[in-house]
Amino acid sequence: MDELILTLSCPDQPGIVHAVSGAIAAAGGNILESQQYGDPVSHRFHMRVHAAGVNDPEVLRQSLTRVAAILDLDWNLESAGHKVRTLIMASKEGHCLSDLLYRAHEGTLPIDVVAVVANHETLRPLADFYNAPFYCIPVTQQTKDSAEEELLGLIDEKDVELVVLARYMQILSDKVCEAMKGRIINIHHSFLPSFKGARPYAQAHARGVKIIGATAHYVTPDLDEGPIIEQDTIRVTHADSVPDFVAQGQDVERRVLSRAVRWHAERRVLLNGHATVVFD
Amino acid sequence: MDELILTLSCPDQPGIVHAVSGAIAAAGGNILESQQYGDPVSHRFHMRVHAAGVNDPEVLRQSLTRVAAILDLDWNLESAGHKVRTLIMASKEGHCLSDLLYRAHEGTLPIDVVAVVANHETLRPLADFYNAPFYCIPVTQQTKDSAEEELLGLIDEKDVELVVLARYMQILSDKVCEAMKGRIINIHHSFLPSFKGARPYAQAHARGVKIIGATAHYVTPDLDEGPIIEQDTIRVTHADSVPDFVAQGQDVERRVLSRAVRWHAERRVLLNGHATVVFD
Amino acid sequence: MDELILTLSCPDQPGIVHAVSGAIAAAGGNILESQQYGDPVSHRFHMRVHAAGVNDPEVLRQSLTRVAAILDLDWNLESAGHKVRTLIMASKEGHCLSDLLYRAHEGTLPIDVVAVVANHETLRPLADFYNAPFYCIPVTQQTKDSAEEELLGLIDEKDVELVVLARYMQILSDKVCEAMKGRIINIHHSFLPSFKGARPYAQAHARGVKIIGATAHYVTPDLDEGPIIEQDTIRVTHADSVPDFVAQGQDVERRVLSRAVRWHAERRVLLNGHATVVFD
Amino acid sequence: MDELILTLSCPDQPGIVHAVSGAIAAAGGNILESQQYGDPVSHRFHMRVHAAGVNDPEVLRQSLTRVAAILDLDWNLESAGHKVRTLIMASKEGHCLSDLLYRAHEGTLPIDVVAVVANHETLRPLADFYNAPFYCIPVTQQTKDSAEEELLGLIDEKDVELVVLARYMQILSDKVCEAMKGRIINIHHSFLPSFKGARPYAQAHARGVKIIGATAHYVTPDLDEGPIIEQDTIRVTHADSVPDFVAQGQDVERRVLSRAVRWHAERRVLLNGHATVVFD
Predict the structure, then answer these.
(1) Which residues of chain D lie closer than 8 angstroms to A201, CB-CB?
(2) In A55-143, where does DSSP find H-type helix?
(3) pLDDT tens digits, A238-276
(4) Are C260 and C266 in contact (CB under 8 A)?
(5) What is the CATH number of domain C84-278?
(6) Which of B12, B39, B112, B224 is flagged as catalytic?
């Protein structure tokens, strides 16, 4: 008898919590933790429930299907212990990849790393060490299309549920973005919307900022404009050079990315238009 | 048709959310925001609901009374716009008092300051400026008992719901602590449980810490041991003297205290044994 | 026998510290605290010295004049206890003004508020309470020029050394910016360079950020582009509305602004091209 | 022609900076960065200088020896590029070890890991992956003495300059503490002086704190009482269990430890009685 995570979004209206909690109670379930949020602007209602004691998830699923038809729910029901099948993409820098693999290995990040894809060979030993299947798919202007086909093939073959861009220095095509909509997380090494695009630390240094940051967001075809999941910042001083920004920023990047991935994997992140609801 | 805040605690059991949301739905209410937490150790369940559209709060009150009897609820239903009748106590230092009065005056802190009590005259002009009734009740070893009587008299006369110790340098008797249990908030100028008692900044400086903090907690007869509501910290360096700690710590103190008071006033803080649940 | 603060900037070259510390030692001075920074990109060297025991500042001043001629120093020597003559500008919102006046009054901010200028009457009582001379100078498209003349007149008459824009909602002309170059500090209610211009909290909310911030910077004719002195940030969540951003952001604004003003007043901020060196 | 780091402490007195900068200038050196701090309580003066362009370090060394005799300097002169020969000790948990090895490998931490010593075999593969020589030295009550002999033998044989206790769960004897005084850094998983000793996260949870922390300090025979190098904190909520504290605390531990190790290795940490001066 598994613990379950239910997430849902729907137009706001009276009676949602009552209907949903009724379905759970009828299935013998007990609510361990629950959070709701009704957006007063978009009038969308969002909810996450962590329940235990449900005798038969199938019965609950049927009740929820009935409720969903009435209340127009987008909903998902998942075992709380489910490890999200994750494909991580990287280039040459390993700080984010190393961190994600370590956490997955230690069991503090509920993901199953089914593949590591990189456009260079550099990180193969790291993936090997953690027994994560490594695929080097080089990308040049000529091979970009075939490289993406190979990637989509892997996603399909491995039943990938989540793609994480762990400082992957290539831009994914709209086709891949669409195919995995809401399921690709990128880490951008700036406090967005400041310093989009290339070399954000150098941009930040040139502007003389006193704080640098990192942003984890869902990838959309619009570069660095996708819904933000998590951000964090760190102080810098006049004495820090661009390489110092890079070195210190790595700490923030991996922290922000691992939180975003954990929250996504624990189904704590719900899309709310162009923004996210994070039930942390 | 007012917005309402419902808070409740009870033994954990299936069906709580369903029963409560049912009562709200039956009264025509719509849940704007809701948070729950079931403590896996103490098996107490805690909930806060912000609802709108309830036609008749009295009807809801009756339904909740029935639910409470069945589920053994401690509960409270309050208008969301209610300003908590607050008595603030201080001594000579005005940074916390000034901050609370300013916020109350600006409307960002939902309290009504019905009295300011101090054991010195120093802060009278500040209270006057914000039109807060000021009472100077000096405290000496001889007058401590009569001073407390005067305080309890004021609390009674003014229907005081919350007492805030805004750097009040006297210790309240067990009698007052008991009389206002769970309704006295103190700011202690250290990151508890480090540096209890007197002169915490000097203690922190002597220990060579790199971070100082402040703690807002409910007052219990056990000095500096009450349930913690909020804490925050700030970095210091070797170059900071004790007076520097004091000056920089004031920022943290007033920030922490005002958050704790706001959360309490918005009914976001629930007691959970010796700790608090904060639905922020 | 006063303590002194010496600040200087010059082209980087060997022997600067030796020459400067020699002048101080020759005048009987002892260095209490000193910081240096040589920018490896611009090749400018910056230094701040806090010295005690100088018998005759005039003798030191003469030695430094000789050193300055050789090493091409921009330098300034000031009594450590000097209170900077400050004119604060505001509009209707008082959180920054209230904070600065409180700190100046308590003695934790080494400024002497010689005037408060606002384009509305709203904040007059606050200024009055702290005995700060208040001048209401309304600004309309027609009166902008004469308003600025009045301002410049005040600056001149009161020997103003520093102008602080404490949420002043008007844009100063290039003329004023030039006249007080490096001596006007503004607080912008965003984490620059994100969300320049009007209504930054609304912009931030629309973008779905998870952290908001504030930036204190020197004012230049280029709006929100001046050298940054200090920044800080605070976490927000999906449940926070634009008014919540505004209310919580006020805390950050006043904290950042008061730090920037304190550092400027303590001569800890040196201009380094388009950025600042902050010897905190 | 190497860059050099000079650090020194001495009784405070006029002329120190002048004498030291004179020695550097006479050796052709240019000061890139320099920081001083005179403790007004202990009357000790501390200084760190980063210099370039010194033609002959031996000449500088001779000048400094002369200055040291006059001013009673404790001083050290080191190549700026020197990698500190470091022995890391751990038990079964690898988050700190993994982080240090990764950073050393990437070149963002100026240490040379000459040995990893653990009282269990668990972490051998991790050390192997980074080519760090791994020594398993089990510790029981019976073998504690011989284990320490083995450790001291390794320290000697490998010319170890720094020992890092990266969540090593054994207590070192006074003998080892004395032998490596000021050269053993420990990470304690609480915000000291709160929650000394065993199971600090469980202690913190029981107290209901809202923030947890970690502390890196030099090891002295007095457990968890050594001079603090660095601390940091992270927010927790009522919904976090002890295992959640542990998991989230790991992030803070490794961040704090790596900073402390980096600052020590860069000679930024000077002992000042029972506290530290950190020129960061």
Answers:
(1) none
(2) 57-71, 95-106, 124-129
(3) 999 999 999 999 999 999 999 999 999 999 999 999 999
(4) no
(5) 3.40.50.170
(6) B224
Using a CB–CB cutoff of 8 Å, tell me whether A190 touches chain C: no
- Whether A224 is catalytic: yes
Count of pairs with CB atoms under 8 A, one residue in A, one in C? 86
Shortest alpha-carbon distance between residue B278 and chain C (Å): 15
Cβ contact A153:A122 at 8 Å: no
Asked if B278 reaches chain D (Cβ–Cβ under 8 Å), the answer is yes
* D202 touches B: beta carbon within 8 Å: no
List of E strands, B94-251: 111-118, 134-136, 162-165, 184-188, 211-218, 228-235
Residue B89 β-bridge partners: B117, B165
Longest dimension (CA), chain D: 62
Name chain A contacts of B16, Cβ cutoff 8 Å: 31
Q: Which of A39, A112, A224, A244 is catalytic?
A: A224
How far is it, in rounded angstroms, from Cα D197 to Cα D215? Answer: 13
What's the CA gap between A165 and A187, in Å, rounded? Answer: 7
The ipTM estimated for the assembled molecules is 0.93
Show me where the domains of chain B are located. 4-79, 84-278
Give the C-alpha separation, D228 to D216, whole Å.
6
Q: Which amino acid is at B109?
A: L
User: Fold identical between C4-79 and C84-278?
Assistant: no
Predicted pLDDT of residue A223 = 82
Q: What is the pLDDT of residues C209-222, one digit of tens each?
A: 999 999 999 999 88
Q: How far apart are CA A251 and CA D197, in angstroms?
A: 28
pLDDT in tens, D166-206: 999 999 999 999 999 999 999 999 999 989 988 999 999 99
Which residues in chain C have Cβ-Cβ distances shorter than 8 Å to D28?
Answer: 14
Which of the four pLDDT bands, split at 50, 70 and 90, describes residue C2?
confident
**If one looks up domain B4-79 in CATH, what number appears?**
3.30.70.260
